[in-house]
């Protein structure tokens, strides 16, 4: 039963993401989904020639940003509906009530800025994106051991509880000036993927794959911004070509 509901859940999410991708016009092309990817990025960036896949944030043009808002609200709605259909309990990052077999993903702890009411920040040039864990990839994260501080990369050495979650960090640089990290980045509900919500651990099949909503709050001016996001786990070496734990895209904010 648990496994069946996991598969249904994943199918719902993937079908929705694929439907969203297909509903876009053929020009410019959308990035194809590859099942080897460890995470899905929503909204799907578009592919342009000689550019990192790009999310266009056109503050003055609702016809352009409305599509991104639709992608994200479709995703959150799918989570809500799916969650309503399986018996779930509210859990904490550190604590699940005794006897509980499934924890509902805490959608209500996603920042109010990253909601449909606030257009996921697209009308104000402070866009939100979602990173969704891809359970199909079959990847089993191995956490860092906080006792071996020297093994932990400096980027995540402080402020993370490796027993509880796989950290996700993002950094930005402005393409023309090379200025880096002028965007403030907010992660919700958690700054990574909690192990508690990973489908393959423990409570198999009863939870939805974790997602992280990430908001980029910037200088409110036109900007072409390169973004790199990273997943951090012991079995994701950073210095390999085609690092599977890195997600790269850009924002073109006008
Ligand atoms: C929401 O966005 C505004 C900018 O539009 C920012 O000042 C504020 O800190 C954000 N709030 C949160 C909780 O991220
Ligand atoms: C973490 O490292 C310490 C010291 O090397 C070791 O005793 C402990 O068993 C390790 N914990 C895990 C979960 O591997
Ligand atoms: C983010 O940081 C990494 C490592 O510090 C660097 O290689 C990468 O170029 C940076 N990305 C951006 C978009 O600044
Ligand atoms: C880079 O990868 C090699 C193995 O491919 C490893 O021996 C080395 O320690 C890695 N370097 C860093 C800085 O992670």
TrEMBL record:
One of its GO terms (molecular function) is ATPase activator activity. Keywords: Membrane, Signal, Signal-anchor, Transmembrane, Transmembrane helix. It is a single-pass type II membrane protein. GO terms for cellular component: sodium:potassium-exchanging ATPase complex. It comes from the Eukaryota. InterPro entries: Na/K_ATPase_sub_beta (IPR000402), Na/K_ATPase_sub_beta_sf (IPR038702). It is found in: Membrane. It holds the Pfam family Na_K-ATPase. Belongs to the X(+)/potassium ATPases subunit beta family. This is Sodium/potassium-transporting ATPase subunit beta. It comes from Larinioides sclopetarius.
């Amino acid at each position: 039963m648990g496994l069946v509901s996991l598969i249904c859940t994943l199918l719902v999410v993937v079908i929705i993401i694929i439907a969203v991708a297909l509903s876009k016009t053929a020009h410019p092309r959308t990035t194809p989904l590859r099942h080897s990817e460890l995470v899905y990025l929503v909204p799907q960036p578009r592919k342009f020639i000689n550019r990192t896949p790009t999310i266009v944030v056109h503050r003055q043009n609702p016809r352009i940003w409305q599509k991104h808002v639709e992608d994200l609200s479709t995703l959150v709605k799918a989570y809500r509906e799916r969650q309503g259909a399986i018996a779930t309990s509210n859990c904490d990052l550190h604590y699940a009530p005794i006897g509980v077999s499934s924890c509902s993903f805490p959608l209500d702890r996603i920042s109010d800025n990253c909601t449909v009411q606030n257009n996921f920040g697209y009308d104000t040039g402070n866009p939100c994106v979602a990173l969704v864990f891809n359970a199909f990839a079959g990847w089993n994260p191995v956490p860092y051991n906080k006792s071996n501080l020297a093994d932990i990369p400096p980027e995540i050495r402080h402020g993370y509880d490796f027993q509880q979650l796989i950290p996700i960090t993002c950094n930005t640089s402005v393409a023309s000036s090379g200025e880096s990290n002028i965007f403030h980045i907010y992660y919700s509900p958690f700054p990574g993927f909690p192990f508690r919500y990973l489908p393959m651990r423990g409570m198999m099949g009863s939870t939805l794959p974790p997602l992280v909503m990430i908001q980029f709050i910037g200088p409110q001016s036109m900007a072409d911004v390169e973004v790199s996001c990273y997943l951090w786990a012991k079995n994701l070496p950073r210095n390999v070509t085609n690092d599977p734990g890195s997600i790269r895209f850009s924002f073109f904010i006008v």
